[in-house]
Design brief:
The structure holds 2 protein chains of 2 kinds. Chain A has helices at about 5-25, 30-35, 40-45, 65-75, 80-100, 105-115, 230-265, 280-305, 315-340, 350-360, 365-385; strands at about 120-125, 140-145, 145-155, 165-170, 180-185, 190-195, 210-220, 225, 270, 270-275. Chain A is an alpha+beta fold. In chain A, helix 4 runs parallel beside helix 7 (about 230-265), helix 5 runs antiparallel to helix 6 (about 105-115) and helix 9 packs antiparallel against helix 11. Chain A starts with 6 loop residues before the first helix and ends with a helix. Chain B is about 25% helix and about 25% strand. Chain B has helices at about 35-50, 65-75, 95-110, 130-135, 190-195, 245-260; strands at about 1-5, 10, 30-35, 55-60, 80-85, 115, 140-150, 155-160, 165-170, 175-180, 200-205. In chain B, a hairpin with a 2-residue loop joins strand 7 and strand 8. The chains are: A alpha+beta, B alpha/beta.
Chain lengths: ~375, ~260
């Protein structure tokens, strides 16, 4: 389908595609097996300008917005959703800074993030607060010009490997969600450490850890926006970052469709390639329809966000994320089915894609939470018209 | 530090055609690419720039469409590209080519370090890099597999020689030729690809580089190709060795080799 990409957007997609083929495909199985973080690959991503696509040009990026990021994440996730996540999760950690950072904060960090020299992470989730972001327990108590952070964040993507973390903590418990504040915390700050690296089902090349704060003193200049804005920073970050998850999911789905199609044309049963059987053809057709529909909703959402013509896009963003990740799950399950016995074996890429797909239905707001947001907005829209 | 990388447009492996009369390669644009070793030379230069600062200029000699490979170099983020182009250069052998390129470097882009791929996959001579060093009176290290360090106007490199490696320290300016094992070339970056869309190389002819016209092109080339031919394929007998297990098969192969006096 023709999506009328600009010359620059075509170049972004082409570069990401070439990068993934050259540097990711040959090693994806190995990284999945060992669970090592892809330092070398990330360095090369920076060299290829793939780390700063969505960062404004004045801070060393390419200024190609959420749509540019979407194209790159999709192309690279076709090959490996795990390795690509090192960059994509940095985008999640960087959006708070782009959206709410002051000039000084942006100048300090964004050029390094754009060049790939700095990795970021976003710390919202806790053992008892995730979908329920209002129940955050990590505290930040004011002490002169500093805030003292205490608490633990869980399942943080890029945990341990990131140099900079956006952390949401409670500064005024009496105000609930409106009493939270977003802090930029650098790795190496005293009192800031990491829990164990999680052993995950999929996206195994990505590092997921706890963030542990024990009397960690953070200067007030590291606050994003202002005190009490933590919840809003977090919610708007998710609105901007969910298309990134959707792009990862779309890439995994499209990659699985490519692999299944290729396999079905090579694998022979009853003297014919299995792609000649209608049962397989219908599966392939359903997969292709869904992947194309996912791409359409995602691209249009990303373009809507970048156009800045629509102030609130939480519904569209949640739709793209939930739809693309549901498609990724169905498509990868069907890809494994088309591969048959081979699909269940680690010698073929289908099972890894299925494992990688699952997380996209869970993180940055489960698809159930995304549906809540969509419905809430639908109702609000009707009430607003009355 | 000014680094010059000499690159060459070569026929892509799958497109090689010979002129049946002149016995030379038919060079056209469609089936051309950058000499693979030169990608490693470019990567070496870019890494040196990252570690020590400086400017990287890619230079090539060839017809106007050789600018395609300069665009590849720009995509990889070299700072500049120079095309040495003119009818007067046609028919150059390695002596005339190395003279021409060295004249251009001297006149247009004086270098502290010149990096070449160790060999081009079309002519397979590995003579142009060494030739440039001689015309310019610079030190030469061939078959470099690692840049150790650059300091005090000296470069220390590791080169592969038969039976081992050598660490060599040479005074700059110098010429090095690099092996493929030295690095993994980067792909063209996004900004590089944006830049190459509008890139036009600086094009220089014989007049611009102020060279001796008797030393360039066909006039400056003492090499004449006597004959080019495709060697006849030798037919060999073959026999399938059967056996109960690997050990028995291996024994049969060994017996055969001894009996035939192929090994003694």
């Amino acid at each position: 389908m023709e999506y009328f990409l600009s010359e620059k957007e075509k170049i972004v997609a082409e570069t990401a595609r070439e990068f993934a083929e050259k540097y990711i495909r040959p090693v994806r199985a190995e990284y999945d097996e060992t669970g090592e973080f892809p330092w070398e690959i990330l360095k090369k991503m920076g060299q290829a300008d793939l780390c700063g696509i969505y960062i404004p040009e004045e801070y060393g990026g390419l200024g190609l917005g959420v749509f540019g990021l979407t194209l790159a994440v999709e192309e690279m996730s076709k090959v490996c959703g795990g390795i690509t996540l090192a960059m994509a999760a940095t985008a999640l950690g960087t959006f708070p800074l782009i959206l709410y950072g002051n000039k000084e904060q942006k100048e300090k960090y964004l050029p390094k993030i754009a060049s790939g020299d700095m990795i970021c992470a976003f710390g919202l989730t806790e053992a008892n607060a995730g979908s329920d972001a209002g129940s955050i327990a990590t505290r930040a108590d004011k002490d002169g010009d500093y805030y003292v952070l205490n608490g633990t964040k869980t399942w943080i993507t890029n945990g341990g490997v990131a140099d900079l973390y956006t952390v949401i903590a409670v500064t005024d418990k009496s105000k609930g969600a409106r009493g939270t504040t977003a802090f930029l915390v650098e790795k190496g700050t005293e009192g800031f450490s990491f829990g164990r690296k999680e052993n995950k089902m999929g996206i195994r090349a990505s590092s997921t850890t706890e963030l542990v704060f024990e009397n960690c003193r953070v200067h007030k200049s590291q606050i994003l926006s202002r005190e009490g804005m933590g919840f809003i920073v977090a919610m708007n970050t998710l609105c901007n970052s969910r298309p990134g998850v959707a792009a990862q999911a779309l890439g995994i789905a499209a990659g699985a469709l490519d692999e299944a199609l290729k396999f079905s044309m090579e694998r022979k049963q009853f003297g014919s390639p299995i792609s000649s059987f209608q049962a397989i053809q219908h599966m392939l057709a359903d997969m292709a329809m869904e992947v194309e529909a996912a791409r359409a909703i995602l691209y249009q959402t990303a373009r809507t966000i970048d156009s800045k013509k629509q102030k609130n896009f939480s519904k569209e963003s949640a739709m793209a994320k939930a739809f693309c990740s549901d498609v990724a799950m169905r498509t990868t399950v069907n890809a494994v089915q088309i591969f048959g016995g081979s699909g269940y074996m680690k010698d073929y890429p289908a099972e890894k894609m299925m494992r990688d797909a699952k997380i996209t239905q869970i993180y940055e707001g489960t698809n159930q939470i995304c549906r809540n947001e969509i419905a809430l907005q639908l109702i609000k829209d009707v009430k607003g018209k009355k | 530090m000014n680094i010059v990388v000499c690159i060459k447009q070569v026929p892509a492996n799958t497109h090689v055609k010979m002129d049946p009369v002149t016995h030379t390669l038919i060079r056209d644009r469609s089936g051309s690419t950058i000499n693979p070793y030169d990608l490693h030379a470019l990567e070496t230069a870019l890494q040196i720039r990252e570690n020590y600062g400086g400017r990287v200029t890619a230079v090539t000699m060839g017809p106007p469409h050789a600018s395609d490979i300069l665009k590849t170099a720009v995509g990889m983020t070299v700072d500049d590209g120079i095309l040495i182009c003119g009818r007067e250069f046609a028919g150059a052998d390695t002596l005339a080519t190395s003279y021409t390129i060295s004249s251009a470097i001297k006149k247009v882009c004086p270098a502290d370090l010149i990096i070449c791929g160790k060999i081009a996959i079309d002519g397979d001579t590995a003579q142009v890099g060494p030739g440039i060093s001689q015309w310019l009176g610079m030190s030469l290290v061939c078959n470099v597999i690692k840049i150790e360090k650059i300091e005090d106007k000296k470069i220390i490199v590791k080169r592969a020689v038969e039976g081992g490696n050598e660490l060599v320290s040479v005074t700059l300016p110098a010429v090095i030729t690099v092996d493929k094992s030295i690095n993994v070339p980067r792909i063209e970056s996004i900004k590089g690809r944006f830049k190459k869309c509008d890139f036009e190389p600086k094009t220089v002819n014989a007049e611009a580089i102020e060279c001796d016209l008797t030393k360039i092109g066909l006039n400056g080339s003492p090499t004449s190709v006597f004959k080019v031919f495709i060697p006849e394929r030798q037919k060999a007998d073959h026999e399938l060795i059967e056996g109960k297990n690997v050990a028995e098969k291996a024994q049969k192969v060994a017996d055969f080799l001894f009996e035939s006096k192929l090994i003694v």
